[in-house]
Amino acid sequence: MIAVTDVLRLDGVDRSFGDRQALKNVSFDVVAGRMTGFVGGNGAGKTTTMRIILGVLAADAGRVTWRGAPLTREARQRFGYMPEERGLYPKMSVREQVTYLGRLHGMTAAAARQATDALLERVGLAERGDDLLETLSLGNQQRAQIAAALVHEPDVLVLDEPFSGLDPLAVDTVVGVLRERAAAGVPVLFSSHQLDVVERLCDDLVIISDGVIRAAGGREQLRRTYTSPRFELVVETDAGWLRDQPGVTLVDLDGARAVFDLAPDADEQPVLHAALARGPVRAFRPVSPSLTEIFREVAQ
Amino acid sequence: MNTMQATRLVAAREIRVKLRDRTFLISTVFFLLLAAAATILPAVFAGGPSTVAVTEQAAGPLRSAGLEVRVVPDDRAAERAVQDGDVDAAVVAGPTVLALDEAPDDVVGALSTRPPVRLLDPDAVDPAVAFLVPFAFAFIFFVTSQGFGVQIAQSIIEEKQTRIVEILVAAVPVRALLAGKLVAGTLLALGQIALVALVALVGMAFGGDGGLLSLLAPAIGWFLPFFLLGFVLIAAMWAAAGALVNRMEDIGGVSMPVQLTVMLPFFAVIFLHDNPTAMRVLSYVPFSAPTAMPLRLFTGDAAGWEPVVALVLLLASAVAFLLAGVRVYEGALLRTNGRTSIGTAWRSRETVA
Question: Taking the domains of chain A in order of start, what are their residue ranges?
Fold first, then answer.
């Protein structure tokens, strides 16, 4: 049961480092049960925002609330965090340190051991559990890192670039685990600069640039808001006549195939009629603009 | 989970890791062997009372002096026994004591009449012991605070270097992280010293030097609290030094001042141990008090109130250094780019509820 109040909310968060203002009035919600992608260029403020959520950094102004109340250390202890810069103890076994981190997050020894075993099984590390971390391949170290962030069954998950450095198989594993958590009612905030991964994964999207939130909301809603309707048309002969069609902006023309944007007030049906009047139409369909385009649009 | 519980978890991990660390185990075994050797070997080499060859009629006084008597038929046989190395000495007519190259004091003593001796300062300590005991105290404090201090710094750097520190800081209060490390370091240091002391005591009992023990007891009793506070003071400096850098290779630069504050008092106490004025001063300076004050107590130079005052001074400095160390640690811990200056660390503490 997902309560409506299970929201992690940032409200007017500012943060400066010396003269540089890293975050300006940052506000957005991370809603329970949804995967929220956090997108922005290098130095846009993703990591700073996440560190402030986790209490590793202090905000100069504004506040972060969870379930309507300002965050306390006790509440944060129930958060799961995967920092951008990875790290675990090289000379400790995977099982031992994941258990240790579970205990630091307030679990009893028995519960931590049990959760560790289950999680190592889930991420495919059960057989390497007693090996020292430094003897694992980089991909397996990343899996261990995921286990470390999830061991205490967090109320909220904050993951900074969780997919960077992962091989495709590991990406699938991690995606699977995160979806499970989201489905169980946990708000998941993850940052990434790999827009295709975010596109595949996120329900909601927050776009940050220069420390300012440029857009935040449901993925499809953002698509509608920030991009004009786009269509693909395939006809028998040359589609160059589209250029002269009212309300149409050609994006791509390749002989008989064309991709075009439609002015917001224009309708696509007249275009289809015009095409049919010129001969057979092999395809006519709306195209979803990729996140890259949304990102380009809002992060200008 | 509160700071206390977090501290305990952190300390438990530090200790667990250390007890598996080969370098630590080897150094501990080395110290134990050293303690055993230092206490047992002198007794073994001393070799007990001299053996002496003598004719039956002259054997009486030698036997009653506890010497090992070998009865020979005549003086020539006695002399031959000495020549052959069968005995340490022989007593022949005269009486004359025969020996190869060194006069056997115990044999001579058994045949002499000693004048009565009256000691005016019966508590005075044998000069050799008077040097060795403070040296042992200073050495233990020096080696332990240096060794475990470095380990505290290394443990902090490891967490910074591997970046796990960010996960840790998100989970538990920064103070708990530092407190856990200091508690673990102190417990390990005390544990190691206790083991060494135990071996030394058994060794002394074995070597038959029980008298020294009763002399040492009060000094050891004072050494413990001085050691504990002195260790905390130095460990706090090591923790701050460790937090300032990000790579093990860089520890040399920041640790130099810390090393000096351990090394200079050590050598001062060693070289000035028979200079009462210098020792009086050193026994109040917090850095040298842990070794200088127990030493003055051992030699009976300090009045009853003096260790109390020195201990209060040391306690105040330990608390001050601890607070400063925590502040630098908190300010520098998450600065994982290059080396942080103390000033920057001091000013840039993040305070998050």
Answer: 7-224, 227-298
pLDDT in tens, chain B (353 residues): 788 899 999 999 999 999 988 888 998 898 888 888 877 776 666 656 677 777 777 777 777 767 777 778 888 887 887 788 777 777 787 778 777 777 777 777 777 777 777 767 655 556 666 667 767 778 888 888 888 999 999 999 999 888 888 899 888 988 899 999 999 999 999 898 888 888 887 877 776 655 666 666 667 778 888 889 999 999 999 999 988 888 888 888 888 888 888 889 888 888 887 788 888 898 899 988 888 888 888 777 778 888 899 999 999 999 999 998 888 888 887 776 667 777 777 777 565 54
Q: Do B163 and A86 touch (CB under 8 A)?
A: yes
Enumerate the residues of chain A whose CB falls inside 8 A of the CB of residue B15: none
Q: Looking at the partner chain, which of B166, B169, B173 has a beta carbon nearest the beta carbon of A85?
A: B166
Measured between beta carbons, the chain A residues lying within 8 angstroms of B165 are 87
- Common-topology check for domains A7-224 and A227-298: no
CATH hierarchy code of domain A227-298? 3.30.70
Cβ distance B170 to A81 less than 8 Å, yes or no, reads yes
The Cα of A250 is separated from the nearest Cα of chain B by a number of Å equal to 48
Q: Chain A: residue nearest B158 by CA?
A: A89
ipTM score for this prediction = 0.80
Q: How far is A58 from chain B (nearest CA, A)?
A: 5
Tokens read off for B274: 């028979």
Specify the CATH class of A7-224 in words. alpha beta
Q: What is the nearest CA distance from B21 to chain A, expressed in angstroms?
A: 10
B22 touches chain A (CB under 8 A): no
